């Protein structure tokens, strides 16, 4: 992280590590906490909630996987930042639940920069209107944008994806100055993401190793 930030002429503390703990047991998370990691990401709410309860108030939990509307209540209760807001309808559902709970929930818009048909997220041409509608919801705090680059063997292929997201965020900030965060970069491409302006990187395998295979049912 520090080397990539240095190459980009950025301060190392301008990038925050979100350690993705999908499939990672509580004991390993405690080891990471002892080393100073306090931001953790989970893909699935049902896996996250027992960890959140067991590990107490210290960690800051990020929802980095797809959020279904029928699980909004638990997401609002458990997570400090939702990275994967991918529709206005979902935003409205989160806002209703947050308002009922007396909370203001921090969110990022997920953008499908590459236009991959199997991935969630707003298309590039939809983002401006989505920001206009979501930024005025009083129970939501829209903090920035998130993307997932296409899988590739060469991390450099992700560079134009990350650069386009940064350019989009910069354009939007002219009207919506609170859009500070760029969540982009995973185990294979986080250095490129940092060079292109990431403020949050979501790294699992590079920290905890390969996840164990789940038994078939």
Overview of this protein structure:
The chain has 217 residues and is of the alpha/beta class. It has one domain: Alpha-Beta Barrel (TIM Barrel). Helices cover 37% and strands 18% of the residues. It is built from 9 helices and 8 strands. It has an 8-stranded parallel β-sheet with strand order 7-6-5-4-3-2-1-8. Helix 6 links the parallel strand 5 and strand 6. The chain is globular and about 40 Å long. The termini are far apart. The mean pLDDT is 95.
* CATH architecture descriptor name: Alpha-Beta Barrel
SS-based class = alpha/beta
Helical proportion? 25-40%
Which CATH class applies here?
Alpha Beta
Strand content: 15-25%
Topology-level CATH name: TIM Barrel
Continuous helix count: 9
Order of helices and strands: HEHEHEHEHEHEHEHEH
Cα-to-Cα separation, first versus last residue: 39 Å
Keywords for this structure?
217 residues; TIM Barrel
Quick gist of this model?
The chain has helices spanning 2-7, 26-34, 45-55, 72-78, 88-101, 127-134, 159-173, 190-195, 205-208, and strands spanning 16-20, 39-42, 60-63, 81-85, 105-110, 140-146, 181-183, 200-203. The chain is α/β, with parallel strands linked by helices.
């Amino acid at each position: 992280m520090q080397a990539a930030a240095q190459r980009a002429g950025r301060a190392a503390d301008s990038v925050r590590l979100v350690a993705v703990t999908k499939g990672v047991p509580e004991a390993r998370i405690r080891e990471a906490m002892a080393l100073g990691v306090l931001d953790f990401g989970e893909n699935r709410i049902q896996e996250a909630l027992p960890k959140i309860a067991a590990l107490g108030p210290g960690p800051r939990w990020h929802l980095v996987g797809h959020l279904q509307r029928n699980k909004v209540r638990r997401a609002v209760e458990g997570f400090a930042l939702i990275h994967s807001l991918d529709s206005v309808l979902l935003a409205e559902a989160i806002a209703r639940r947050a308002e009922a709970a007396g909370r203001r929930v921090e969110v990022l818009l997920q953008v499908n920069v590459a236009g991959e048909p199997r991935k969630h997220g707003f298309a590039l041409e939809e983002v401006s209107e989505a920001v206009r509608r979501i930024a005025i919801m009083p129970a939501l705090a829209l903090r920035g944008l998130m993307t997932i680059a296409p899988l590739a063997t060469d991390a450099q292929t992700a560079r134009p994806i990350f650069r386009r997201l940064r350019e989009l965020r910069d354009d939007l900030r002219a009207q919506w100055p609170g859009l500070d965060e760029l969540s982009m970069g995973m185990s294979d491409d986080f250095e490129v993401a940092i060079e292109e302006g990431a403020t949050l990187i979501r790294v699992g395998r590079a920290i905890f190793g390969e996840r164990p295979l789940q038994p078939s049912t």
